[in-house]
Design a protein that fits this description.
It is built from four helices and four strands, in the order E-H-E-E-H-H-H-E. It has one domain: Alpha-Beta Plaits (2-Layer Sandwich). The chain is 36% helix and 32% strand. It has 100 residues and is α+β, with helices and mostly antiparallel strands. The longest helix has 17 residues. It starts with a strand and ends with a strand. The protein has a four-stranded antiparallel sheet with strand order 2-3-1-4. The chain is globular.
């Protein structure tokens, strides 16, 4: 089992485009033995301490294997909508880990 945590920073006024991409991408996770464990939008009141910009969203996803994650990333249906991701996301930070 692997865990993916992603901090997502979107471009100004691109929330609707980002949501459109997510409506396609998130259901595909299950096709590859994955689960969306958390999808959060932190607000200022939930930040206790920070030395960097707060992300628009934080995702925590699990996959049964590294190969499942790779298969998700190269899914043909998802790739048809990557232009929406590129249009709406300014940057993202991805952390991969395992349960210990």
């Amino acid at each position: 089992m692997i865990y993916i945590t992603q901090l997502i920073y979107i471009k100004e006024n691109q929330e609707t485009v980002f949501d459109e991409f997510e409506r396609v991408a998130i259901p595909i996770i299950g096709k590859y033995n994955g689960k969306m464990l958390f999808r959060m939008r932190p607000d200022k009141s939930s930040i206790i301490e920070s030395s960097s910009e707060s992300p628009y969203e934080i995702h925590l996803v699990s996959f049964e294997s590294e190969q499942d994650f790779k298969n998700f990333m190269t899914d043909e249906e998802r790739k048809k909508y990557l232009h929406l991701k590129e249009q709406s996301i300014r940057s993202s930070v991805l952390f991969k880990g395992e349960k210990i």
